[in-house]
Amino acid sequence: MAKTIMVVDDERRLVSLVESYLTQEGFRVVSAFNGREALTVAQKEKPDLIVLDVMMPEMDGYEFMRRHRAEGNTPIILLTARVDDEEKVIGLEVGADDYMTKPFRPRELVARVRAVLRRVGEKEPAAKVLKAADITLDRDSRTVQVADDFVDLTPSEFDILAALISTPGRVYSRLDLLDIIQGVRYEGYERTIDTHIKNLRGKIERSPRAPKYIETVYGVGYRFKRD
Fold first, then answer.
1. pLDDT digits (tens, 9 = 90+) for 185-224
2. pLDDT in tens, 87-134
């Protein structure tokens, strides 16, 4: 069955262009032209991935993500016309899994869509349940439990934690982790990993400023602390 992609943007010509490229690649495409409409479409269509513009009338992309994340963890690729890092960091903090700046090449967007879907739906390794310290991660149900509490993670946060917890003590570079969550190693984008790590620590660490689980290896990357 074809994967369903929802494209949300108030630029109708852009939506039509992206839809044509995705359709040619075998995807089923549904669309919305503002965040409020997108909430309704997402509830009805249950898309496998959302391509989402930031600046839209009625409800912008950030508010859509906040409301949609309360109902599900659909992967989201954010589109933004601004190239400053602050805009990108905000998007990642709200829950985007990837982002592209406008103008963009439609074929690159298609490649990003495939990469995100691939790493979300790829075959899992033999170990379905991973345990380290007092964290339990279940790949089948994609749940994470810290001590007695379950925590909600975005797809990117889950995959980063799964990589780190599977090999405690191993240092992963930012490019390594970018490859894991996006299926590509885009130099210049690796600093987005820092934002994902910050968000992840905020959810699993009692004191993110003095992390118990995820250590920073300065100048290299991150690792899950050995017991």
1. 555 566 788 999 999 999 999 887 788 999 998 888 899 9
2. 667 777 777 888 888 888 888 898 889 888 887 775 445 468 999 989
Q: How many CB atoms lie within 10 A of CB 143?
A: 15
Structural domains in the chain, CATH included, are 4-121 (3.40.50.2300), 129-224 (1.10.10.10)
Single pTM value for the model:
0.60
Q: At what angle do helices 61-69 and 35-45 cross, to 10 degrees?
A: 30
Q: What phi and psi values does residue 69 have, to the nearest 5 degrees? A: -65, -20
67 by DSSP, 3-state: which? helix
Question: Any idea which residue has 């994470």 for tokens?
Answer: 144
Pairing of strands 135-138, 129-132: antiparallel
Q: How far apart are CA 93 and CA 87, in angstroms?
A: 10
What residues have CB less than 8 Å from 189, skipping those under 6 apart? 178
**Sequence-separated (6 or more) residues with CB below 8 Å from residue 58:** 34, 35, 36, 37
Give Cα separations from 53 to 84, 103, 191 (angstroms): 16, 12, 21
